[in-house]
């Protein structure tokens, strides 16, 4: 077996340069034309079989080992966020209003370098490795579903999937691996309350949609506090509330939007009914009408136990016993969950927090940055994970 750590370290400068280039030129979901073009060219240069334009801008590179075996898929996401960067660095985003505020520039660079190293050693690979570069992870419906529909899990059939994310809640130098539930499903809803408008001086003649909406917003908080087992994580949050246009009129309409985060699939199916029952009761009591629009977005990320075990062993070999941790359950979300519905796999969290370097902002923050010293670790854990699976 080749010296994995040494080869990852030797590519440090190239990885950093690639990541910074992507960072300077962020592209929003399904418009990653420049990014996917660079990805495809490099994969072709490494001798991989490359398919482009999958679900608009997705790319898949296939590396066939010299010995027959299973197929493993490694995934990175490419899209940026609609965030205006506030960092002061040489590689600051050159596109106003767009920024790699979640580390997808690092994910793409690390997976390209992973492909470069493994392509050099195809004679030592038993089976196949697919390198998947996904568009538009950040915005529902995401890029994963479309790529799956276009056949990325077949020809050859994928036996396991692994992904990785730089993570602000894990210290740099550590790697988080968690068997079972890791991330929540991020469902969304819109509530429209209809009342009867009137003059503010004669409230008895109207039906105040704003007041009804306020009661609905408060009552919805009792779902988590009084209807759900405290050991089953759940969140119901109202994010927007819009009603009224002038200070002396009774508003006839109120519109609220919010998010529901749960991990348990059964509870996820029950949540729309729980929410509608409360809205209906409040509106009937206060003479209002309502409309509820509820959208199930990404499923929860649930890591396969066996695949997580393989990733954990790979992480232990990469950073040592004291630096592999259980990152805990997070109510964030990821459309990597769609791949996990099709094949066993694991989503790995690569530690990124380093306050000593001023890298202490959360993912999606306008000052989010990547501790580039962790990039070789991310490449190494991907390589070790893929090889361990294929040799298992």
Description:
By secondary structure, the protein is of the alpha/beta class. It has 2 domains: 4-183 and 300-391, 3-Layer(aba) Sandwich (Aminopeptidase), CATH 3.40.630.10; 185-295, Alpha-Beta Plaits (2-Layer Sandwich), CATH 3.30.70.360. 34% of the residues lie in helices and 27% in strands. It has 10 helices and 16 strands. The protein has helices at 4-10, 12-24, 33-45, 104-120, 144-149, 209-226, 265-285, 305-319, 337-342, 375-391, and strands at residues 49-54, 58-64, 67-77, 126-134, 160-171, 175-176, 180-183, 185-194, 198-199, 234-243, 249-250, 253-262, 289-295, 301-303, 324-325, 345-353. The strands form 4 sheets. The protein has an 8-stranded mixed beta sheet. Helix 8 (305-319) packs across helix 10. The longest helix is centred in the last third of the chain and has 21 residues, at 265-285. The protein starts with a helix and ends with a helix. The mean pLDDT is 98.
What's the topology here?
Layout (H helix, E strand, L loop, with lengths): L3 H7 L1 H13 L8 H13 L3 E6 L3 E7 L2 E11 L26 H17 L5 E9 L9 H6 L10 E12 L3 E2 L3 E4 L1 E10 L3 E2 L9 H18 L7 E10 L5 E2 L2 E10 L2 H21 L3 E7 L5 E3 L1 H15 L4 E2 L11 H6 L2 E9 L21 H17 L1
Parallel strand pairs: 3-4, 3-5, 5-16, 6-15
Antiparallel strand pairs: 1-2, 2-4, 6-16, 7-14, 8-12, 8-13, 9-11, 10-12
Helix pairs in contact: 1-10, 2-4, 4-10, 6-7, 8-10
Can you give the mean pLDDT?
98
* SSE succession: HHHEEEHEHEEEEEHEEEHEEHEHEH
Q: What is the rounded distance between the termini? A: 15 Å
Indicate the overall shape: elongated
Low-confidence stretches: none
How can the largest sheet be summarized?
8 strands, mixed
Read across the widest sheet, the strand sequence of neighbours is 1-2-4-3-5-16-6-15
The percentage helix is 25-40%
